[in-house]
Design brief:
Blueprint: H1 13-23, H2 30-61, H3 73-118, H4 122-126, H5 130-172, H6 174-221, H7 223-228, H8 232-284, H9 290-331, E1 354-361, E2 372-379, E3 384-389, H10 395-402, E4 410-415, E5 418-419, H11 425-430, E6 432-435, H12 446-451, H13 459-468, H14 472-475, H15 495-509, E7 513-517, H16 525-539, E8 543-547, E9 559-564, E10 567-572, H17 574-578, H18 584-595
Parallel strand pairs: 3-8, 3-9, 6-7, 7-8
Antiparallel strand pairs: 1-2, 1-4, 4-5, 9-10
């Protein structure tokens, strides 16, 4: 969790500024919002007529001539019916209008937030946990939606009722109103003090809940590792401790809210009973009509309820303001690419010539550790080049820089003689295909996963890609064939099957440059042969960069670069490097081939 999320939130000027930033998502639906606010105001004001009319009806029933409404009891019954129908219709209109505003506005916000997240650099995800980002898209937006559709409307409704109620009471019963106004401000101030502490505990609870969600995300994403290490008990304890912290904070939260309710019941209603006692004395002394005392009782109950609810509503709104600040922080991040509905204005026509010139690089999160130290390499169009070296030598970093996951610290990378920075990023990546060692498929069908390489491909293109990648031989064995669901992360397919689906995806993409990141290192001999045959088909006519641990798979490449500690220490063909006595490649080759 970032530090800023642990600060206690309250409604401040900066918070309101953030809220106004998110409020722009409501602007396209402003007529509905205005209509909802008008319905809210009218409904609240109409409702406030009811207690006054009830008091006047009590006066009429007691034989006291009304000063305001000269109606019969039957007329009062008709008036109350009109008030109830009007109140119901306005409440319905308000609910529908606010639902339109909140649902559509928050849908737009969710889309923009998701789009902003998926267009970030790799370093953005390295600095944040998946659970935290998921919480922004789900929990924070849900909090905002609730605020716009329910909390804000209810808060304004209570304010309208509070102000109109005080005004009516000041007109009907001025003496009792003065007594009430002398006591209520003190109660409101004390309620705000309670609310501030309640808000703090609510924020802590929300943060702890987000932390527990992170644990769930991590466990479910890596459940195979959990199973492999038999760490179900460990994960259960870890999640249980997180939940116990939430329970502890929640109980403290409930205790404070309980004290707040005690305060409301004792102090607020104690003040109300005192005022009613004074009102009874005024009626006895004929200084007030009994109907007005009856109205005062009803209005006072409404005002008491409004004041009691304002504290909780304020806490909810403050939480929503905090959510807007976190969302705004993401929305204001710069994007790596711009979404263009998948349409390329100027498709690249690359030959596939690649050159690295004195490239130095350190990862943004580990600037003190150099990863590449003056790398020079060249790949001619259509050639196959292999990168060999121990783990951590910089092989994967080289291809990550080619895909512009990161920017080099110094030196340059050139494609067809042009600096890589001059290319449109989306167009560049559309010309690069990758088959990784660990293929992560989406949870849909085989067809959907292959089409990820070219979503608009025809069925003929899909079938050709499946056959060229040796996928069709296992696809046709499934009852649903291409419509077979692969399961979460492709769990229902074997490693070799997943690799061949990834190859089919790359064939369909038809890239100019191909990256094979140890694509056969984790397969058995039979699967490796099928995958290797598919890879050979895939590499035809393409510039290919192969990261390999198994040297037997790269004997026929045009050039091999041997890396050690971020530097190229040897380069040449398999025969050239194998003939170097005591060379790094020949030593590694002897070890591997002897083991084989």
């Amino acid at each position: 969790m970032s530090k800023d999320t642990n600060k206690n939130k309250r409604i401040t000027r900066d918070g309101l500024k953030s809220a106004s930033y998110v409020f722009r998502y409501m602007l396209p639906y402003l007529p509905y919002f205005i209509g909802g606010m008008i319905s809210l105001a009218l409904g609240s004001l109409i409702f406030m007529i009811f207690p006054g009319a009830a008091g006047e009806m009590a006066n009429t029933a007691a034989g006291v001539k009304s000063k305001f409404l000269d109606l019969s009891l039957k007329d009062y019954g008709f008036l109350f019916l009109v008030i109830l129908i009007a109140q119901g219709l306005l409440s319905y209109v308000r609910t529908i209008f606010f639902a339109i505003v909140s649902e559509k506005g928050m849908a737009d916000l969710r889309k923009d937030l998701y789009n902003k997240i998926i267009t970030q650099k790799i370093s953005f995800f390295e600095e944040r946990r998946v659970g935290e980002l998921t919480s922004r898209v789900t929990a924070d937006v849900e909090q905002l939606q609730s605020a716009f559709s329910i909390t804000l409307a209810e808060f304004l409704r209570q304010i309208i009722m509070l102000i109109s109620g005080i005004a009516i009471l000041a007109y009907l019963t001025p003496k009792l109103s003065l007594i009430m106004l002398a006591t209520f401000p003190v109660i409101v101030i004390l309620a705000m003090v309670f609310g501030r502490y309640i808000r703090s505990l609510s924020k802590k609870r929300q943060d702890k809940l987000a932390e527990s969600n992170v644990i769930v995300e991590e466990t479910l994403q890596s459940f195979s590792a959990v199973k492999a290490f038999a760490n179900e008990y460990y994960e259960s304890i870890r999640y249980g401790k997180s939940i116990d912290k939430i329970v502890k904070i929640s109980i403290s939260f409930a205790k404070i809210r309980g004290l707040f309710f005690i305060f409301i019941i004792t102090v607020l209603f104690g003040a109300i009973f005192f005022i009613l006692w004074r009102g009874a004395i005024l009626v006895q002394n004929q200084e007030m009509e009994v109907g007005h005392l009856f109205s005062f009782i009803m209005y006072t109950g409404i005002l008491g309820g409004a004041i009691a609810s304002l504290g909780n509503l304020y806490v909810s709104l403050a939480g929503a303001v905090g959510a807007t600040e976190r969302i705004q922080k993401i929305l204001q991040e710069g994007s790596e690419v711009e979404l263009s509905d998948g349409q390329e204005e100027t498709p690249l026509d690359l030959n596939g010539e690649i050159e690295y010139k004195n490239v130095h690089f350190s990862y943004p999160t580990r600037k003190d550790i150099p990863v590449l130290k003056g790398v020079d390499l060249e790949v001619r169009p259509g050639n196959k080049v292999a990168l060999v070296g121990q783990s951590g030598s910089g092989k994967s970093t080289i291809v990550q820089l080619l895909m512009k996951f990161y920017d080099v610290d110094s030196g340059g990378i050139y494609i067809d003689g042009s600096p890589i920075e001059t290319f449109n990023l989306t167009a560049l990546r559309q010309n690069i295909g990758i088959v990784p060692q660990e293929v992560l498929l989406f949870g849909g069908t085989i067809k959907e996963n292959i089409l990820y390489g070219k979503p608009d491909a025809t069925n003929d293109e899909l079938m050709e890609a499946a056959k060229r990648s040796n996928c069709w031989e296992f696809i046709q064995e499934f009852p649903d064939q291409f419509e077979t669901v692969v399961g979460e992360r492709g769990i229902k397919l074997s490693g070799g099957q997943r690799q061949r689906v990834a190859i089919a995806r790359a064939i369909l993409k038809d890239p100019k440059i191909l990256i094979l990141d140890e694509a056969t290192s984790s397969l058995d001999a039979e699967s490796e042969k099928l995958v290797q045959d598919a890879l050979n088909e895939l590499m035809k006519g393409r510039t290919s960069i192969i990261i390999a641990h198994r040297l037997a798979t790269i004997r026929d490449v045009d050039q091999i670069y041997v890396l050690e500690n971020g530097q190229i220490i040897e380069q040449g063909t398999h025969l050239e490097l194998s003939s170097k006595e005591n060379g790094a490649y020949s030593t590694l080759a002897k070890l591997q081939f002897e083991m084989d």
